[in-house]
Design brief:
Helix content: under 10%
CATH class: Mainly Beta
Number of domains: 1
Shape: globular
Number of strands: 20
Distance between the termini: 21 Å
Length: 302
């Protein structure tokens, strides 16, 4: 059973699909008006790959059960970040399980001053990973312009030290309108908001196809890869990080679908046709699995 306090995952607290951390998601097929949300295409055989040699799985979520594991995840219920020009309210009804995957939906629906609703989940105050390890996800994003998807990590001390002093690692950021340019970023003291330490890739389109994203997090170094190709490395020796390198602590995990924002741009008819339809077959993100591993030698020492 999970402690109510955040837990840093290491070898000593090995958590697998059949153990303390369940594998599930909530509100299957729900929509704000009842009935089913638009079905998202679940790709053929989206099965987790094996952990690479030298790494040991210490936590894995494959969303194979029927309900979101409340001991690990919370479905967000709050407005989007207006400082980032986000146009959606985070609505728990937009979080679902379909075909054994986590699906985050979005709809054109006004709520608390936002014109759209979208789904996101967080492990804040429940589960933390690290410090150091390998975070991998298998995912796809729908093709609607203005949609964005992210897997972002935040230091567990965010409530006491604030952001960006707590540190933020954006393991994955994708804008559907720029499907060949994923973003890899870290935020810390003196490099945050619109000026993070960041880079974009130049790879085959990430929209409507499965891809495995891997973050390798080591002391003083973080790297990002997609389907085995490294596209960015951040290092503590970077002069831009002179204000501090706050990535030596446990981090909690968020998985988000956004509508609008400076990153993704505004929606257009590819997302919601101008016929007033609230649902859209293109407004979704799908996660097959999320897994955290540590090097065998590192996890043995912990």
């Amino acid at each position: 059973m999970i402690d109510p306090a955040p837990r840093a995952v290491s070898r000593r607290s090995l958590l697998t699909a059949g153990g303390a951390i369940g594998v599930s998601a909530a509100l299957a097929g729900c929509s704000p008006h009842g009935g089913s949300a638009e079905p998202a295409p679940i790709g053929p055989d989206p099965l987790p790959s094996a952990a690479p040699s030298g790494w040991e799985v210490v936590w894995e979520e494959d969303f194979s059960s029927a309900d979101l594991d409340a001991a690990v995840w919370t479905a967000a219920d709050h407005g989007g970040n207006r400082d980032l020009n986000e146009k959606h309210y985070n609505d728990p009804a937009m979080v679902a399980i379909e075909g054994g995957s986590l699906v985050l939906h979005a709809r054109r629906q006004e709520r608390e001053g936002y014109p759209f609703v979208a789904g996101s989940i967080s492990s804040k105050d429940k589960l933390a990973v690290g410090p150091y390890g390998r975070l991998s996800t298998r995912q796809l994003l729908g093709p609607g312009q203005g949609l964005g998807f992210g897997v972002c990590l935040y230091g567990v001390d965010i409530d006491s030290v604030g952001w960006p002093a707590c540190g933020e690692i954006d393991a994955t950021e994708i804008a559907a309108g720029r499907p060949r340019s994923p973003f890899a970023s870290i935020h810390g003291p003196g490099y945050s908001g619109g000026s993070p330490i960041s880079a974009t890739g130049a790879i085959p389109s990430l929209v409507d196809r499965w891809a495995e994203h891997v973050l390798e997090w080591e002391p003083g170094r973080i790297s990002w890869a997609i389907d085995g190709t490294v596209y960015h490395v951040a290092d503590a020796s970077d002069p831009r990080a002179a204000g501090g390198w706050p990535f030596d602590r446990p981090f909690f995990v968020t998985i988000v679908l956004t509508v609008g924002s400076f990153l993704s741009g505004d929606v257009d008819e590819s997302t919601w046709p101008r016929n007033g339809t609230e649902s859209s077959p293109n407004a979704y993100a799908v996660v097959d699995f999320i897994r955290f591993e540590q090097r065998v030698a590192d996890s043995t020492r912990r």
